[in-house]
Design a protein that fits this description.
Length: 96
């Protein structure tokens, strides 16, 4: 019974993380992609070399949009960019 509960908890966390990445993609495509091209996220030429730098850069650039992002929205954008472009050593336990 405990194993089944643990499995359900892990599956739920995976679904929540996938939803966050999908929301991050939507937010990025809606509010950021009009100014950013794929060239910006070129790993070899990027100034972003760590998860902390990615977090700082997204926070800085979020201020350039006409939208105020909630902290969880910024987390989702960061997670989307990390998974889709940067693949940094990210702390994956930041969300339940």
């Amino acid at each position: 019974m405990r194993a089944a509960s643990a499995l359900l908890l892990l599956l739920g966390a995976g679904v929540a993380q996938a939803q966050g990445i999908d929301r991050g993609r939507l937010l990025y495509e809606t509010h950021c992609a009009s100014c950013h091209t794929e060239r910006l996220h070129d790993r070899e030429k990027s100034r972003v070399q760590s998860y902390g730098q990615l977090r700082a850069e997204v926070g800085r650039r979020a201020g350039m949009t006409n939208r105020v992002f909630a902290p969880d929205e910024l987390d989702d954008i960061i997670e989307f960019l990390d998974r889709s472009h940067y693949r940094l050593d990210a702390p994956r336990d930041k969300k339940p």
